[in-house]
Amino acid sequence: MQLTVNGEKGDYADELTVADLLRQRGHDPAVVVVERNGEIVPAAAFAATRLEAGDVLELVQFVGGG
Amino acid sequence: MEDKFILGGVELKSRLFIGTGKYSADNLIPAVCEASGAEVITVAMRRVEKGQQGIVAHIPKTMRLLPNTSGARTAEEAVRLARLARAAGCGDWIKIEVISDVRHLLPDGYETAKATEALVKEGFTVLPYINPDLYVARACVDAGAAAVMPLGAPIGTNRGLRTKEMIGILIDELDVPIVVDAGIGRPSQACEAMEMGAAACLVNTAIASSADPVRMASAFRAAVEAGRNAWLAGAGAVKAPGEAAEASSPLTGFLR
């Protein structure tokens, strides 16, 4: 299925949870915040949230700033 | 004399806030935190790239995070960033930064006040970064801002307190803490802001861009403490130019 992750469209496995996606990309689920179609996915729901074709995801974290 | 600093219902011991941007190496940050004595530290929020480590791993757990909404050009974008920051699980403090002017990086007061109102309603402790404009500051305070953070000079310029007069007016007029943010380049300038009655200073570039950030952090710590002590002490009157000198020693009693 097609997903847009951080602005980039790509093909992903049809059965995929938020937790799977983070693992595939090598992100630490403890520090990454996920927004799916404009709604925040609580960290406790990463494993249970199945992604659907066309989903738009933003994966963000804290970086240095003033 | 007791000198409590309460911000957003939290008592802070340090009146120096620091940032995490622009360090040549992020592993300097723990030593900078220690040397600065600061308790509040700013962070930004951005898309995570593959294999990229975030900043939180470098920040001592005792620090209170103050995420900013940098990158936002509208109130709506600032609200979105604030919600994402809160979802990271590091509290509900937020520095609102709404900037669409990419050259001078000046904050948009109208959008900032709108974002302040929205985020206060969502239960955030809101610290808006503003030009030191009394009307913008009042709009933010009326909307429930916990403090206002006026700029001393444009972000990252190290030019000092160019807006001194206007910051003085905010200190005089508003009942919330005034935290001078942006532009402070030298410890003497932070000291001056504190002598004027600012509640705190936020310093990032001046520390991070110095040759020895850890030593500079300790210099800012001392400057902020000195300035605060001077304000509490109440400075003596300044004589106008041309007014007569006034001897500190007795003029009579021996040779005259």
CATH architecture descriptor of chain A: Roll
At CATH's second level, what is the architecture of chain B? Alpha-Beta Barrel
Q: Give the biggest sheet of chain B.
A: 5 strands, parallel
The secondary-structure element order of chain A is EEHEEE
Mean pLDDT of chain B: 95
Instruction: Let me know the number of strands of chain B.
Output: 10
Count of structural domains of chain A:
1
Can you count the helices of chain B?
Answer: 8
User: Per CATH, what is the topology of chain A?
Assistant: Ubiquitin-like (UB roll)
Properties at a glance:
heterodimer, A: mainly beta, Ubiquitin-like (UB roll), 5-stranded mixed β-sheet, 1 helix, 5 strands, globular, B: alpha/beta, 5-stranded parallel β-sheet, 3-stranded parallel β-sheet
Tell me the layout of helices and strands.
The complex is a heterodimer of chains A (66) and B (256).
Chain A: E1 2-5, E2 8-11, H1 18-25, E3 33-36, E4 39-41, E5 56-64
Parallel strand pairs in A: 1-5
Antiparallel strand pairs in A: 1-2, 3-4, 3-5
Chain B: E1 5-7, E2 10-12, E3 16-18, H1 29-36, E4 40-47, E5 64-67, H2 75-87, E6 93-96, H3 109-121, E7 125-130, H4 134-142, E8 149-150, H5 164-173, E9 179-181, H6 187-195, E10 200-203, H7 205-208, H8 213-233
Parallel strand pairs in B: 3-4, 3-10, 4-5, 6-7, 7-8, 9-10
Antiparallel strand pairs in B: 1-2
Helix pairs in contact in B: 1-8, 2-3, 3-4, 6-8
